[in-house]
Amino acid sequence: MAAPATLTSEPAEAAHKPWYRQLYCWVLTAIVTGVLTGWLWPGVGTALEPVGTTFVAAIKMLITPIVFLTVVAGIGSVDSLGRVGRVGLKSLLYFQAGTLVALLVGLVAVNVFQPGAGVHAHPGDLHLEGDASQYVKDGQNQDWWHFLTDLVPTSAVGAFAEGDILQVIFFSVLFGVALKAVGPVGEPLVDGIQRLSSVIFKILHYVMLAAPVGAFGAMAYTIGKYGISTLTSLGRLVGLFYGTSAFFVIVVLGAVTAALRLNIFRLLRYLREEFFLVLGTSSSESALPRLMVKLEGLGIRRDIVGLTVPTGYSFNLDGSSIYLSLAAVYIAQATDTPLSIGQQLSLLAVMILASKGSGGITGAGFIALAATLSTVGTVPAAGIMLIFGIDKFMSECRALTNLAGNAVATLVVARWEKALDTAHVVTVLRTGEPDPLPEPSPQPAVNPLTGLPAQQPSNV
Questions:
Q1: N or C terminus: which one in the chain shows less Cβ crowding within 10 Å?
Q2: Is the pLDDT of residue 202 over 60?
Q3: Average pLDDT in the 445-451 region?
Q4: Once rounded to an integer, what is the mean pLDDT over residues 47-66?
Q5: Which residue ranges make up each domain of the chain?
Q6: pLDDT number for residue 428
């Protein structure tokens, strides 16, 4: 069986380019240009909306096949199905712990700094309009167990067509397990999937050439439509959210990486192209394929990356969790709604469930927030109108924090699986050049009577 082409060749080649030819440099230039365009010529910025949305749509077009191929190839390469279940369980346990910590960090920050104090907004004067009204309606119809019932697609094709990552993961795991269970019969298909992955990632490379254009259009539209004045009018809340998220990444996630004997700043630098891409498009999904490639470039096993990263996009939303606790208590403070510690902990318990399974959905943060407020009932749901105007600016930070959280989660799970070569990761982070370790070949079955490799059935 021919070895599949490495999926990390593009980032490795990019590492040798001079800085002015690096993707992150062009994306950063496009972001700055987009901000200036939207600020100075709002009409032009607003008209550029199709440029950004088309690029994001092109990325989303590739996400479901990449998730499917990566998960199936990862499961097909492991030596036992028990290891797949172990990786999945450890990922979910870490995700739950990370979500809880992120919610608590946001809760402490909003209580200490109280950005909503002094607003004195009357709930009766708040009227839901436009998209905000639809988000609240969706949130009211969203039960706490929705992510469980939404896990199973009504059809395999529908999951891919609708771009539901969670459903694609569910189908991919079933497909990969079945492929592994049939043994030698499925080996040619595993080889074909690995080869097809190389083709899909080459398509991704072509799409990424348009990343600066997409970032320019998305940022020009955001500033042109909402204006910088919208950002500054609620500056305390925006500043607190960005500051809290930075604290979470540098201190909390930094402590986790330090326990792994890794440097959080070097990890962030290694992923700088993905961060700039997320910043420009306001979508963490735009960086999902490249994040998986970069993590494999750290020497992390493909099955760990393939299971942890896509699942984390639905279950490990650290930035969204911080946003939920900050926004809910801010609305309570702004509407003079008293909340006891017990009531805030009740909000937190609902948020743990409401935040799951919403990755990649437009307005997901608002839907989860509305679902929380509607379920608890102590804070007026109409209060989301107070922050609706700045949500677009806050979504940037949510996406960046989510990306950092999922990168660290993958490292943790790899260490938990005793599959993290720390020295190799340190070398890659220091040089900035992805260098995947070779995947171990599955051990041949042994005949218990002779002690020799079992005879494989002929394909003829």
A1: C
A2: yes
A3: 47
A4: 83
A5: 9-431
A6: 93
